[in-house]
Design goal:
With 343 residues, this protein is α/β, with parallel strands linked by helices. The chain contains 16 helices and nine strands. The longest helix is centred in the middle third of the chain and has 25 residues. The chain is globular, with a radius of gyration of 19 Å. Bound molecules: coproporphyrinogen III. The site of coproporphyrinogen III (CP3) has 21 residues, from strand 3.
C-alpha cells in the first residue's frame, strides 16, 4: 500500500500536487455541520459526543475528499479537564474560570485525572480510525502551553494577551508553574490521542505572535520542544505539526529548535518568504488567506495557484493561513481544491 500523502509530505517528500486539508474544515460554513450541531445542542456537547463529533469530522472528508481529517474538539477541553469551568457565550466565544494565583495553580487537577473528562475525545478518535477512508490521515491536536495559558489567565480570548503578559512579568513563579502544569497534561493528552488512533499531532500556538525576543524562546519554543521530546520518547517517529501563528521572523528555525516535522504558516507571511526561509529546512503547511473562501472567483484561483507555485520545490501541505470562517462559501472550497489539482 502506498503511504498516505500527508505522511509522505511530513517525511519530506515533494509530491506532484500537495496534499490538502483546511483548518476548521468541520465548521459552521457547512450546512451539514450546523444540522449536526443542532442535534447535539451546543458546541461543547458536540465535542463530548463521540458519535456526533466523529460525524462532523467526517463531513468535510465526504464532501471534499481532504487528505487529512482533524479530530473535532477544541484546545480549551484540556484546561477544562484540569478543573476550571468552560462555557461559550453565543456570538462572543469562549469563557473560562480564571487561574491567576499559585493557590489556584496548585488546586488544578493532577495530570493523571484529565482522562476522566477527556475520554470521549479518545472515543471519537477510535471511531474515526475505523471509519476514515484508507488514504486519509487522522490528525489529533492540542493548544500550545502559551496559548492555553492566555485563556486560563484572562478567562477569554483577547487581542494583545495583556493579562497573560502582566502575570508573566509580575508573578513569574505562578506563571511558570501554570505553563508546567499545562505542558505535562498536554503530553499525556496527546499521547492518549495517539493511542486512540491519531497518526499526526498538531500544536496550535495561536497567540505566539505576541511573544517577543527572549519571551518567544522561553514560552513558544521551549514548551513546544519539551512536549515534542516527551511525546517522541513514548511514540518514536510520531509526526508533529506546529503552528506558532504570527511568529513572523521567529518562524525561521522553529522546526529545528522544537523538533517538529512541519511548520504551519499564517497568511501574514508571503508564500515566497515561507519557501525561502522556512521550507528550506523541511515541510511547511499553508498559507492561503481564509478570506478567499468568502470572496472566491478569479482572485481565489490566482492566489491558490501562487501558493502552490511558491512551495513547489519543497515538501508542502496545502492549507489556509488560519481557520476557515463561518461566512465561507462551500463552493469556494471546491474551487480551491480543483485549482490545486490542476495547477
Ligand atoms: O480544525 C478543525 O476543524 C478541528 C476542530 C477545532 C476547533 N477549534 C473547533 C471549533 C480546532 C483545531 C480548534 C482549535 C482552537 N480552538 C484554537 C486554535 C486555532 C485557532 O483558531 O487559532 C483556538 C484559539 C480555539 C478556541 C476557540 N474555540 C475559540 C476562540 C472559539 C470561538 C471562535 C469561533 O470560531 O466561534 C472556539 C469555538 C470553536 N472551536 C468552533 C469550532 C468549530 C465554533 C463553535 C461553534 O460551532 O459555534
Amino acid at each position: 500500500m502506498t503511504e498516505k500523502k500527508i505522511l509522505r509530505a511530513l517525511k519530506g517528500e515533494i509530491l506532484p500536487t500537495p496534499p490538502i486539508w483546511v483548518m476548521r474544515q468541520a465548521g459552521r460554513y457547512l450546512p451539514e455541520y450546523r444540522a449536526t450541531r443542532a442535534i447535539a445542542g451546543d458546541f461543547l456537547s458536540l465535542c463530548y459526543n463521540p458519535e456526533l463529533a466523529a460525524e462532523v469530522t467526517l463531513q468535510p472528508i465526504r464532501r471534499y475528499g481532504f487528505d487529512a481529517a482533524i479530530l473535532f474538539a477544541d484546545i480549551l477541553l484540556l484546561p477544562q479537564a484540569l478543573g476550571p469551568k468552560l462555557w461559550f457565550e453565543t456570538g462572543e466565544g469562549p469563557r473560562m474560570e480564571t487561574t491567576t494565583t499559585m493557590v489556584q495553580v496548585k488546586a488544578l487537577k493532577s495530570r493523571s485525572l484529565i482522562h476522566e473528562t477527556l475520554s470521549p475525545v479518545y472515543e471519537t478518535l477510535k471511531i474515526l480510525a475505523r471509519e476514515l477512508p484508507r488514504e486519509t490521515t487522522l490528525i489529533g491536536f492540542a493548544g500550545a502551553p502559551w496559548t492555553v495559558a492566555t485563556y486560563m489567565i484572562a478567562g477569554q480570548g483577547s487581542k494583545d494577551q495583556a493579562k497573560t503578559h502582566a502575570l508573566k512579568n509580575t508573578d513569574r513563579e505562578t506563571f511558570l508553574a501554570l505553563i508546567d502544569v499545562i505542558s505535562n497534561a498536554t503530553v499525556d493528552y496527546l499521547s492518549e490521542q495517539v493511542k486512540a488512533g491519531a497518526e499526526v499531532v498538531k500544536l496550535f500556538d495561536s497567540w505566539a505572535g505576541s511573544l517577543k525576543g527572549a519571551d518567544f524562546e522561553d514560552f513558544a519554543v521551549k514548551p513546544t520542544a519539551r512536549i515534542i521530546t516527551a511525546l517522541r520518547e513514548r511514540h518514536p517517529g510520531l509526526p508533529i505539526i506546529v503552528f506558532p501563528r504570527e511568529a513572523g521572523p521567529n518562524y525561521i528555525g522553529f522546526a529545528q529548535k522544537t523538533g517538529a516535522d512541519c511548520v504551519a504558516l499564517d497568511n501574514l507571511v508571503t508564500a515566497e518568504w515561507g519557501a525561502a526561509n522556512v521550507q528550506k529546512d523541511g515541510c511547511v503547511q499553508g498559507n492561503l488567506a481564509p478570506k478567499h473562501m468568502v470572496t472566491g472567483g478569479k482572485t481565489l484561483v490566482r492566489e491558490t495557484r501562487a501558493v502552490v507555485k511558491a512551495f513547489r520545490k519543497g515538501p508542502h501541505i496545502f492549507n489556509l493561513g488560519h481557520g476557515i470562517t463561518p461566512d465561507a462559501n462551500p463552493d469556494n472550497v471546491a474551487l480551491m481544491i480543483e485549482t490545486i489539482h490542476s495547477a
